[in-house]
Amino acid sequence: MGRVARPPSPRLPAARRPRLVTALLAAVALTGTTAASCGDDAPVVTVAQVGRAPVTEVIDAPATVTARAAATLTAPADGTLSGLRVQPGQRVTRGQVLAVVDSPTARERLAQAREALRAAKRAGRGVGASDLGGSRRGTDRAADEAFAAARAAAGKVGDPQLRAALLLQVTSAQRQYESAARAADRAVTAVQRGVAGLNSAVGALSAAQRLQAQQAYDLAKATVDALTLRAPIAGVVQPGGTRVAPSADLGGLLGAAGAGLDPAALGAAGSGGPPAGVDDAVPAGGRVTAGTPVFTVVDVGRLGLFAEVDETDVLLVRAGVPASVELDAVTGATYDATVRSVDVLPTSSARGGVTYRVRLDLGAGRLGATETAPAPRPGMNAVVRLRVREAADAVAVPASAVFSADGRDAVWVLRDGRAGRVPVTVGVQGQDLVQIVDGVRAGDRVVVRGADQVRDGQELP
User: Most buried of 43, 74, 331, 414 (most Cβ within 10 A)?
Assistant: First the structure.
């Protein structure tokens, strides 16, 4: 924070560093105020006695209300939405059935896998040595097709936990099959070399075929089971997927999640909705394709805030810092908030500077002295006032009393009627008051107005 040496000039906190600050208490105990005038002009230099007062340093930052979590449920396969078990706006519990998708394709795939499993269990006899290689290749092709189909179906499941479980099941099944296939390969090779008998090779091949058929059946059944859409989290239901804010600053930071959804708490990646003016609610009996958003469950049990704090201020922000919040949508209301965490990596702000995401827990709001403010909705715009530093009983002077000279903060102190420049150490910086940690004591008389008009040794009343 370098400064250029120049003749003494007034020092304002907002000029020293680009910070938006608001003083909660703007009065300081200054007594014995006197003013010096130049000719017929109005007084330009004011002197007052330093006292003690509370000083609060506040950082203002734009913010957006966020939900605790959200999860979008999508159709796992092509079909028809055969049953809607809930209504938009309804509160649901985790695991509650929301809808059922009827997919003839998925059920047909399950039926085929079931029949293939039965056939594999009956097979194994009557295979000649010349048929072993062809049987192995056929088994591999069937396995590859089953794993590819299962992986594609799992990737279209909206519930992230279910999707991850299905993909893990596919990966595990593929590894098991590869292990069985290697054993079958070794047995087939041994037979072809005349080292082992045909029965051992047939047994190994049959084991691989049965394993492949069982895994294909299990994966097909998992897809059919996923046709019953269950709420992965508790919350409020809304039709379709989450929408991406087209031009909002914070919405752009949230990416696919959309404004109002904290990406750290998202239960699923958001799915962009249709153009504005188009209802994306799927009615009962409506056609869906794999990946179509059906419902989004939003957990509003604990609302939060997502704020952008400038790089010049973020080092003062830490977990536990209290804040007050004002919403554009609720004029006159004030909400309490507390910093939960500060992101380590930066983002680029709309103004081209560097900002850091600060996450806060949002508390209750008040309208006036007694009335309770309404609960906000995710995505609402807000201004957060972070009380980063406080001094309860500080030696304080008006911000206009402090100026920069020779690379240091200083004030004019009157001793024996003459002004002398005294270097000071500044502590908490409010909009109107500044804490002086060292250099000035309570009771000293200082220039609080017109510091740029004073010279060293000048007589002042």
Answer: 74
